[in-house]
What we know:
The protein is an alpha+beta fold. It has ten helices and four strands, in the order βαβααββααααααα.
Amino acid sequence: MRYExxxxxxxxxxxxxxxxxxxxxxxxxxxxxxxAGPGQGDSALERVLARGAKGRRPFALPAxxxxxxxxxxxxxILLYLARHHDLGPDEEATGHWALxxxxxxxxxxxxxxxxxxxxxxxxxxxxxxxxxxxxARHFLAERLPxxxxxxxxxxxxxxxxxxxxxxxxxxxxxxxxxxxxxxxRYAFPHAMRESESVHPRLGRLFDAVARRPRIAAYLAxxxxxxxxxxxxxxHYPELDLPAS
Length: 244
């Protein structure tokens, strides 16, 4: 089966979490927004939103078409792919634990986005710069250490060893944590250098994922778009300040 991934063609965004799983799984997929050609990506995406499957219209992207299914919501897409490509836990209770971690990562991603758009996504950054500076300061002082510390502890207490968040082998949650750390390193390089120095397990997981042959090939390819100022993770130097 050839998957169709529907997401905006010029940013990594939430679609990148699905791309990493598809790449690690060596799945046959087409990134519809990018394949549609210049100026055609948005219309292709709007078509899948309007069409849905059996009248079930996704609220927003990303969406994954798998045969007759159209699956929306990032965590839902990842869970489906993990089950079909052996990138999730086999045991039910552990599967729920993994999904809980993925949803916690989704909360984290939302908080990162809100550092540069704390008022409304429809406003330009310049229209909320003062509020963004205040929000980013709070995020760096309180929320970033909380999330980093939590996932460091999850690695530390994994009964199967600290190389993965869940179990003894790579799962979709490891790939998602890699993406969040990559985005944070881009958005807040100063703050992350300070924070990651006290969270060595996170750094080791990041490096291990980046070295995986399929992921390394993907990261080096043009399929991996660079971070930019239109996505979730944005670098504004005035926001990357010490918390104190």
